[in-house]
Design goal:
The complex is a heterodimer of chains A (about 250) and B (about 325).
Chain A (H helix, E strand, L loop, with lengths): L3 E10 L2 E11 L4 E5 L6 H9 L5 E4 L6 H7 E4 L11 H7 L13 H13 L15 H14 L4 E5 L7 H16 L3 E5 L3 H7 L2 E6 L2 E6 L1 H4 L2 H8 L1 E8 L2 E9 L3
Parallel strand pairs in A: 3-7, 3-8, 5-6, 6-7
Antiparallel strand pairs in A: 1-2, 1-4, 8-9, 10-11
Helix pairs in contact in A: 3-5, 4-5
Chain B lengths: L2 H18 L8 H10 L4 H35 L11 H15 L1 H4 L3 H21 L5 H24 L4 H11 L8 H19 L2 H7 L3 H6 L4 H23 L5 H9 L7 H25 L8 H24 L1
The chains are: A alpha/beta (about 250), B mainly alpha (about 325).
Chain lengths: ~250, ~325
């Protein structure tokens, strides 16, 4: 069973080709990291896969109507500004919207899911706080909770761990890994190749407008790919602790 | 219904009753209210039914329109500085009214002026939708609104500039200050259908506006159809603000200040703010119209002047408060 199927996918933005001939299938229980240098099209790929921007080719999500899509996939964009000083609980409750009729009061199920999502990101006790008064890291975790509360089989997140401290980066990746253990699937764009190598079950490498590699981290983070696409040399080692990655230096100045 | 809405409704009803008891004919409050319901052809009943009642009803309709449209626009644009004038609808309605005064259409038949203003509002909104496009972002909408406002106000200046006589000029200037004086039930009948339809369109935006708190991308991924939301917002606002300007002139600050004042009382949720702002707007215009008639009854004080005099200091206070919270 596939949760997201993309075939011969091409995206142009303002007449300029950004991605060409992308094809991949994602099934349940995967934690997929989309990696690539700045401007490689990571955000564009996710937005196009969601049907938020037009694309040529086939994508199973983009073909759903709005309401069914909102019950199939949760999207956490990189945009982290929250317009109004609403409470943490009210914000996370927005994730329940696709499951609620207009004007209905939250059901016990809605409340339980919201409480569970807040607990998963470790923000118990913050429920009544105004989101706009939180630190940016805390706000990021609230937005992750919002996506979790949507209770979808698939979660797409654009650089969810950017701006978090090391402990919260790790705990966020572990939260996503726990979702994958429950046979839900997370696809996230990520710049931290060390965390990507350690936590993702699969990496998709974008560069030169194409999908250059797709597979387990040890097969994607090769010295050749790192040199050609990221212009860096790195240390990589399979240890008892799992795959350990460290960027070392820039190759061509 | 929430307790806040109940409270606002009660206060609006109270102000409505007070508004009915005020006027140049010196009659006690109880006597005037009795005359309203007694009916018959006594002079007092006529004053109540044909002068004061339409005035109070229009204050509610116009105020609710401005408050509701202001709250909806602020929610959609995610900006607390948005207000109904931003879309250029009130500006183009004013242009229609000015042309009616200038060309004599206003004097030719009783509803000449409001109908012409309404036509102006519709041409304005048509231009905005053409300029902003169906799938354009919020920025193109704001820019289109600014362009239309600027164009309408330039045309109004031109009309004043070329005005054949000083009387037409002063009539235009006074009309633009906004007033509910001497309005009849005909005005109510003209405004009501537009305001009912527009209010329904705007009130159904609660869910999408809540979702837009997270940004347009996230809202769309939550199942909201943004192009449709935008269309309902523009057309709904055009209906309520266009016809309000047509019957009452330009009344500023209501759509800006009322959502601001009420936001903390609804937990800042844009959807819950809609109904509250409609009632708050009605209260503000009723109160301003009571002040107009009771503070300087002889001076023919204009409603728009009073709402600005109340609104501007309130707004300054809010800025001060926000600055202190951010510091």
């Amino acid at each position: 069973m596939s949760l997201l199927s993309v075939q011969d996918f091409s995206v142009s933005l303002a007449g300029r080709s950004v991605l060409r001939d992308i094809s991949f299938d994602v099934g349940p229980g995967e934690l997929v990291g989309i990696i690539g240098p700045n401007g490689a099209g990571k955000t564009t790929l996710m937005r196009a896969a969601l049907g938020l921007i037009p694309a040529a080719g086939h994508c199973s999500l983009a073909e759903l109507d709005e309401a069914s899509r909102a019950r199939a996939v949760a999207w956490m964009p990189q945009e982290r500004t929250v317009a109004w000083p609403i409470s943490v609980e009210a914000l996370v409750m927005l994730g329940r919207m696709p499951h609620r009729g207009p004007g209905l009061r939250p059901s016990p199920e809605d409340r339980a899911q919201v409480a569970d999502a807040i607990r998963r990101v470790g923000l118990q006790g913050f429920e009544e706080r105004a989101v706009t008064k939180l630190s940016s890291g805390e706000r990021t975790r609230v937005l992750i909770a919002r996506a979790l509360a949507q209770q979808t089989a698939l979660v797409l997140a654009d650089e969810p761990i950017a701006g978090l401290d090391p402990a919260h980066q790790i705990s966020t990746m572990e939260t996503f890994a726990a979702l994958a253990d429950d046979d839900r699937t997370v696809i996230l764009s990520i710049h931290d190749l060390g965390l990507a190598a350690r936590h993702c079950t699969r990496l998709v490498l974008l560069g030169e407008q194409r999908m250059l590699a797709d597979g387990p981290p040890s097969r994607v983070l090769t010295a050749d790919n790192l040199a050609r696409i990221f212009n860096i040399e790195a240390y990589l080692s399979e240890t008892e602790q799992g795959l350990v990655y460290q960027s070392l230096r820039v190759l061509r100045p | 219904m929430s307790r806040l809405l109940g409270l606002l409704l009660a206060l609006t009803a109270g102000l409505f009753a007070v508004s009915l008891t005020i006027g140049p004919a010196a009659i006690g409050p109880m006597a005037s209210l009795q005359a309203l319901f007694a009916g018959g052809d006594t002079p007092l009943s006529l004053v109540m039914q044909e002068i004061r009642l339409p005035r109070a009803i229009l204050a509610v309709l116009v105020g609710a329109s401005l408050g509701l449209s202001g709250a909806a626009l602020q929610g959609y644009l995610r900006n607390p500085l948005a207000e109904p004038g931003l879309l250029g609808i009130s500006g183009s309605a004013a242009l229609g009214a000015v042309l009616a005064i200038q060309t004599g259409v206003a004097a030719a038949f009783p509803l000449g002026l409001p109908l012409s203003a309404l036509a102006g509002a519709f041409i304005g909104v048509l231009l905005i939708t053409l300029l902003a496009g169906r799938r354009g972002g919020t920025l193109s909408l704001i820019l289109a609104g600014i362009a239309i406002s600027a164009l309408a106000s330039a045309m109004v200046s031109l009309a004043l500039n070329l005005s054949p006589n000083p009387f037409a000029t002063s009539e235009i200037v006074f009309w633009m200050m906004g007033s509910l004086a001497d309005r009849s039930m005909e005005h109510v009948v003209l405004a009501l259908p537009f305001i009912v339809v527009g209010t329904v369109m705007l009130m159904t935006l609660g869910r999408p506006l809540n979702a837009i708190t997270l940004g347009e991308d996230a809202a769309e991924a939550l199942g909201m159809r943004l192009a449709r939301v935008r269309w309902r917002l523009i057309v709904g606002s055009a209906l309520v603000v266009g016809v309000s300007t047509a019957v009452a002139g330009t009344i500023g600050f209501v759509g800006l200040v009322v959502p601001h004042l009420l936001r903390p009382w609804v937990g800042a949720m844009p959807g819950r703010l809609l109904g509250a702002s409609a009632l708050g707007g009605a209260m503000m215009v009723l109160a301003a119209d009571i002040l107009v008639r009771s503070v300087l009854p002889q001076a023919d004080l204009k409603l728009g002047v009073v709402t600005a005099l109340i609104g501007a200091p309130l707004f300054l206070h809010l800025i001060y408060q926000t600055r202190r919270e951010l510091a």
